[in-house]
C-alpha cells in the first residue's frame, strides 16, 4: 500500500502553522514546567482550535486534519529553523 505524503500538502495552512509556531515558542521559552515532549501535542491542539475557529466553529474531518497537521508542522518548522540558526552560529 502506497501513501502519497504530498497529498497532505492540501491540508497545510500557513496561518495556523504560524500561530502554532508562536504559541509553541512562547510555551517553550516562558513555561519551564512544561516538558518539551508536550510541545507537539500543544501545537496540534492549538492548530485544531484555530482551524475550527477559522471554519466558523464547524467541525469536519477536513477542518480537524488541517488544524492538527498544520500545528504539528509548526513543530517541524521550529526544529528546522533552530538547526539552521545553530549551524550559522558555529
Question: Would you mind describing this structure in some detail?
Answer:
The chain is mainly alpha-helical and about 90 residues long. The chain has one domain. The chain has three helices and no strands. The protein has helices at about 15-30, 40-55, 60-90. Helix 1 packs antiparallel against helix 2, helix 1 (about 15-30) packs across helix 3 (about 60-90) and helix 2 (about 40-55) packs across helix 3 (about 60-90). The chain is globular.
Lay out the secondary structure.
Elements lengths: L13 H17 L8 H16 L6 H29 L1
> Poorly predicted ranges (pLDDT <50, ≥5 residues)?
none
| Computed CA radius of gyration, to the nearest angstrom | 14 Å
Largest sheet: none
Rounded to the nearest angstrom, the distance between the terminal CA atoms is 43 Å
The secondary structure category is: mainly alpha
User: Helical residue percent?
Assistant: 55-70%
The strand count comes to: 0
User: Hey, roughly how much beta strand do the residues contain?
Assistant: under 5%
String of helices and strands: HHH
Count of the separate structural domains: 1
Tally of individual helices: 3
Based on Cα principal axes, name the global outline: globular
Amino acid at each position: 500500500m502506497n501513501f502519497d505524503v504530498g497529498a497532505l500538502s492540501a491540508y497545510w495552512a500557513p496561518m495556523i502553522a504560524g500561530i502554532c509556531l508562536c504559541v509553541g515558542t512562547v510555551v517553550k521559552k516562558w513555561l519551564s514546567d512544561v516538558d518539551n515532549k508536550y510541545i507537539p501535542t500543544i501545537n496540534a491542539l492549538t492548530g485544531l482550535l484555530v482551524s475550527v475557529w477559522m471554519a466558523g466553529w464547524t467541525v469536519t474531518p477536513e477542518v480537524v486534519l488541517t488544524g492538527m497537521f498544520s500545528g504539528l508542522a509548526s513543530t517541524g518548522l521550529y526544529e528546522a529553523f533552530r538547526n539552521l540558526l545553530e549551524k550559522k552560529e558555529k
